[in-house]
Amino acid sequence: MAKSAEIPIIDFASGRPEKEIAKELCEAAITYGFIYIRSGALDVGAVDRAFDISKHLFSTTDVEEKKRCSIQKNNRGWTGIRSETLDPKTQKAGDFKEAFNFGEFVDGKAQQPVPNSIADREGEISDIFDKFRALAVRILYLLGVGLEVNPPDFFSSTHLKENGSSGTTLRFLHYPSVDSAEETTDAIRAGAHTDYGSVTLLFRLKGQAGLQILTPSSTWAPVPVCPPTTESDPSPPVLVNIGDMLSYWTNGLLKSTTHRVAVPTGDGDAAASDVLEGEGFKGGRYSIALFCHPAGKTRLEPVPSEVVQRAGEKAGTVEATGTGEGKVLTADEHLATRLKASYIDLYKK
Ligand SMILES: O=C(O)CCC(=O)C(=O)O
Ligand SMILES: [Fe+2]
């Protein structure tokens, strides 16, 4: 069995000193780019409701109705099986998944078509979006504290709703069951990629593993849904990962780690001793992500942090824009470049 990824688990339980949590979080973000967060981080009910809505959406909405809500260049809406290709250089076929993206809500209302099947739950989805975003804002604040950014809310304040619209996206993902050889040959559920934004919160269900990260030795390591010590928690920890924008913004100090969702091989028998719990699960898989982005107009300028500056000097990359071209991008420009590369058909039109 491939060895599981070593990803630190950080306890967000109330009463722990903020500086201690911030330090652990930064160390994990610098070394691994992935972090599990457990305890008191989030209202468990909101996660359950989100999965309930997602399952209802994918299992009861007919294709015509999904098409009415098709993804647009604003990155909102439904994207069908094989229509997104996260690793266009390598993949022979698009990702074996479908997804529904919600952009930001205004006064509880979606700014995009919502499928009839879940129209009565629009306010609930907006509430879930806000709850997830509040956790992301807390994480971004703690990263500011840990990196000694001045002011410490440098990252988090740009993610507040009141500071302007952003590309932040709540995404419901559905990976259909893989049954036939045709479905498994050359197929991948989500191609190898790094996330585009600042941080991503990922929610998964017990027994539905499949996510893998690329280790520094270029091997794929599975990321368990419930890593050791969290097995009896009421719900799996939230998996947080650093996206390209935050890596770029910190001159590469925080890691944006490559990951993918592989198509399971083998017999999917979770009881077999060489299989991680839920690894090799061939049935329909659901996950939910909140991809966070700062307000679109935010210029991704050097972060006012001596920790980041010193790390850049040590690595010999003092220039803080990370491109080597010296041009400061806005958050919107950064996102547009990445979307164009992965939605090949949408941009052909
Ligand atoms: O479904 C998962 O576990 C991960 C999905 C993912 O990495 C993504 O959508 O960016
Ligand atoms: Fe991802």
UniProtKB/TrEMBL annotation:
PROSITE patterns tied to this protein: FE2OG_OXY
Gene3D superfamilies with a match to the protein in the record: B-lactam Antibiotic, Isopenicillin N Synthase, Chain
Keywords carried by this UniProt record: Iron, Metal-binding, Oxidoreductase
Domain Fe2OG dioxygenase as annotated: residue spans: 166-294
Oxidoreductase keyword on record: yes
Biological-process GO terms, alphabetical: small molecule biosynthetic process
Record has Metal-binding as a keyword: yes
Domain of life: Eukaryota
Coiled coil: none
One function term, GO molecular function aspect: metal ion binding
Entry's family note: Belongs to the iron/ascorbate-dependent oxidoreductase family.
Name of the protein described by the UniProt record: Related to oxidoreductase
Protein's organism: Cephalotrichum gorgonifer
